[in-house]
Fold this sequence. Notes:
Layout: H1 17-20, H2 24-37, E1 47-48, H3 57-65, H4 73-95, E2 99-112, E3 115-127, E4 134-141, E5 145-148, E6 153-156, H5 162-174, E7 179-186, E8 192-198, H6 201-219, E9 222-223, H7 227-230, H8 236-240, H9 245-255, E10 263-264
Parallel strand pairs: 1-3, 4-7
Antiparallel strand pairs: 2-3, 3-4, 5-6, 7-8, 9-10
Helix pairs in contact: 2-4
Residues 56, 58-59, 226-229, 237-238, 242, 244-245, 248 line the site of iron/sulfur cluster.
Amino acid sequence: xxxxxxxxxxxxxxxxxxxxxxxxxxxxxxxxxxxxxxxxxxxxxxxxxxxxxxxxxxxxxxxxxxxxxxxxxxxxxxxxxxxxxxxxxxxxxxxxxxxxxxxxxxxxxxxxxxxxxxxxxxxxxxxxxxxxxxxxxxxxxxxxxxxxxxxxxxxxxxxxxxxxxxxxxxxxxxxxxxxxxxxxxxxxxxxxxxxxxxxxxxxxxxxxxxxxxxxxxxxxxxxxxxxxxxxxxxxxxxxxxxxxxxxxxxxxxxxxxxxxxxxxx
Length: 265
Ligand code: SF4
């Protein structure tokens, strides 16, 4: 039997003032911000990314043509939380006996004339009993349920999101794969939902045209239409994802733009 060590209880010494006055939280927060800022990539005209393709064209135009705005610390942390979830899924795939992890975080560039679409897919796997490789895109999500204001009850979130399917479509093309899957991970519970995606040439062509269109707007300095404002299914971007809202509203008023019309800057 191991010996029990008896430790007499005594009140801990009062911590020294110099320790208590340290700004530990501030210092660690600053260290996190500095760490995450190292991962930021500057945007270069002519180089576009699959994750941005479904965003409002006008917002993308502003991102490429305005002086760079630092991404907020809050956004950087949310992105990184997604990376952490992906690392977890990668570890799971590596250890599985039914799955072979062929590649992880593979980088590619698709060249179209003077444009490059650069990207990095999450994982490529082989599933036992299925011969073709499957490209996996991992997305973290707050909850699989959301509050429906009209029905006044919680309902299932409709998955997959079309912007994620678009992103994966580019990866499938780049990797010459027919099959892919978006693995949604609910952050607080680590529950998953998997949405299979099959390569669709028409959808890919539409996405490539969209990138070309964006490039044309940028190099000709032509302000694209306020796409998200004009499109019901994209309007959330104006409130959740757009740092140029005030600027966009001002341009709208100044130019008195008609729906779908481009305006010279
Ligand atoms: S406010 Fe909306 S329409 Fe205007 S640039 Fe931002 S996302 Fe696009």
